[in-house]
Design brief:
The chain has one domain. Helices cover 51% and strands 6% of the residues. With 141 residues, it is mainly alpha-helical. The termini are far apart.
Length: 141
């Protein structure tokens, strides 16, 4: 039997207290975060549903999440906030789309494009998409 590791991260928000003109203290709710965004935004909900699958994501699932972020219109901003260079994103898409680079799990069976010289490993692709989505969600909060 193989042991599995689950990493859980939580972000706590402190409540803000505002003093009104009559001197009363009024607690304010914490800022809305990604969970609220998922409730309000079908694209966020879809991306999180894909990312929440119990098995490691492959090229097809990673690319779907990438497409969701791209369709939101903030791909470049989110990529920059995530510390990703345009060449990183281009290598991800090129590798995901090329059968010689991504193998049987890739998005396409045939292409006329040449494969990337140094294809992106799947682990690096998972990290790239994770960072991209995190930055995207942070931009919505």
């Amino acid at each position: 039997m193989q042991a599995e590791t689950i990493e859980v991260r939580a972000k706590a928000y402190a409540a803000t207290v505002v003093t009104s003109s009559d001197g009363k203290l009024t607690p304010q709710p914490p800022p809305l975060g990604p969970r609220h965004a998922a409730v309000q935004d079908a694209n966020v909900a879809e991306a999180l549903a894909i990312l929440g699958k119990p098995t490691p994501l492959g090229w097809v699932e990673l690319y779907k999440v990438y497409e969701i972020v791209r369709a939101s219109g903030v791909l470049h901003t989110a990529a920059e906030a995530a510390g990703l260079k345009p060449s990183d994103v281009k290598l991800f898409t090129h590798t995901a789309n090329h059968p010689e680079a991504s193998g049987d799990e890739g998005r396409h069976a045939r292409t006329q494009q040449q494969p990337p010289k140094n294809p992106m490993p799947i682990e690096q692709a998972r990290d790239l998409v994770s960072r991209l989505v995190r930055a995207w969600l942070d931009s919505l909060a």
